[in-house]
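Methods: example folding runs. The two proteins below were folded one after another, and each record is reproduced exactly as written to the output file, sequence line first and structure-token line second.
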Amino acid sequence: MEKWPESLKKAKQHFDIADHMAYVSFVILKENRLMIKIINEMYYSVICLIKAMLDYEFENKRIRIYHDSALNFKTFRERVGNMYLAKKEMELILIIINLEKQHKQSEMEFVKNEKFVIMNGERYETLTIEKIKGLLSILRGIMNKVSGMLK
């Protein structure tokens, strides 16, 4: 039984939620804390998209799937991602994953002047709605590209 269509469907659902939050909910509510929820939904979309690609390649007997998610991600980066995505698209996926990781590990987060700031030790990451919309735009292209290739 094919698993990848379900993962692809979930990826699209999470993307649609993030897109709606960025372009509708954020505009109405003007709540900067929504930015981190948008990043969170983008992260789940990316994870489901990676799972869909890995499952597709596994079903076509081109790779092995491991119980360890770190090994599966390594397989994706080294073997699978390059077949479906350009270098810039791979970088975007890594940016989204790193933003979610920074959020989970952050010591402090706060909103200041239309920006959401994530602090980790001496380093910090600043999110704006424009930056998030840019990431969403590129992710939309990746979703369409991968959806077309996995048929």
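Second run, written to the same file directly after the first:
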Amino acid sequence: MPYDFPVNGDVIFTSDDRLVLATQTLLRGRRAKWSHVMITISQAGALHSIPKKGVAIEGWDTLFATRRFGDERMKAYRSPNVDYFGLPVFQEAQTTYGARYNSVFIFRNLPVLRRSFLRSFFCSELAAEFLSKHGVGGDKASMRIFPVDLEQILERQGWTDVSHVYESVLSGKTAVPKIDRDMLQRMRDVIEFLQMSERQRTQAADLERRVREFTDLQMAKLNRSVTELQENTKKYSGDRNQGLLAEGKKKPRGRGASALWATLAAFWRRTRR
């Protein structure tokens, strides 16, 4: 049964960046028609990756504010096995939303770039990553798929052209229900909240680890101080005992001789009287 409205998991191609088109044509050796890829995430918008924003969820009015959808500048594909609810895209959006845009694309694995662009996505890379989790893909890794490659894969796997559905929505002939526009915004809010909660849990775990390490260091320092104090006390006690023992071994002064001289002096004084 055909659906005359956007369905989750639809893949949309647009042509608005000549540099990306030229790069694909040069690297693939055949003319590229598309420079950008999006994944429908709601009847009201799509998930995609763009410079400056990274992976974002945006409504049709924002997505096509500067993009043209007429004159074969836009094409949409739909899986032949899709149902009314489409493909489950929320989980993918939750895990990738807010990630950086992969501006270096296939050169990301170079050692000088790997750390900076490890968690990043090019537009077709994001779409291929999502589709591969639902059994759609080719023999290329997602990070090596250009828009021109992705279209070829979808056509080979029997995806159908539903561009007319999106042209009707974008031209205003088919209205997007307000509830779907509201749900798109709530989806963004929920994903941001879930990601914030995950960051807070990560931060709490990191803080707990740091507190535990600090406590262990403090206990180690305290134990070392106690050990040093005990050793110093033992050493001081030993030195003091040795001193007292040395004092006890000294010979007493000759008090007998002094007493004899005093007696003789007293006797001499009496005999002179």
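Comment on the second run: The mean pLDDT is 78.
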